[in-house]
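Researcher: Here's a chain I'd like modeled. Treat it as a single chain, no partners, no ligands.
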Amino acid sequence: MNRRLGQRMTARLVVPLCAAVMMVASSTVSAGAAPVVGTDISWPQCGRSYPAPSAFSILGVNDGRPYTANPCLAAEYRWARSSGVVEFYMNTANPGVAMGDAYNYGFGAARYAFTYATAHLGAGAGHLWWLDVETGNTWSPDQGANTAVITGSVAFFRAHGVRVGIYSTKYQWGLLTGGASIASVPNWVPGARSAREAPSFCAAGRSFSGGPVVMAQYTTVFDYDYLCPGVSLPALTARPPSGLPPPDVGISNLVNGILAWLNAR
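Model: Modeled as a single isolated chain. Structure tokens:
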């Protein structure tokens, strides 16, 4: 996802930059089975060509930052549906939100992304979601506050019965959170330079949050995502609801999050 940030954003960084980059383990892939590979795209592909259809697709809902919207999401979703399995990811950041407001900021950012996908696609629920945690976005030097932003987003999805994972690397995760442990959340790990190298990124030692590594990303012309052995694509047979998420405390969290974002700009 590093290309997603790099093409448009001039990050207002408060920590050093590092160049970077689904599924819940549920069954075993038989020995010798063909690798399962998907692709992920977002706003950088607006008006450009898309990859060829693959086993699954992952779409970025934001326009590079939290509380923004990918203007091409509907078109990209139409393309992604040809794969049969569609996942989503949202961007994360902390543009200076203090610890006391950080959890609400993350909760509200997740709600914003989820509501946007649900309202425009009828497809927010019933899909796995990922949190994109990279140094290419703006973060606070307060690692505790950064961790609270991330856990707030995780909490939103869990409150709505939505599976959630995190995309990052050990270096970036350590820099931004101090190596916080969220052992129950699957990890999607970038950095492989080729399809041949991708399986080695599934090793347990690549986990950054303590959760299982379920997918490895490698980049050529496009971003490709290798499904780790022992992980299967989710069966998404239920029709997702077309309405907005049910009213709950997330409404106030959304408002507080947007206000905190505006105040920090």
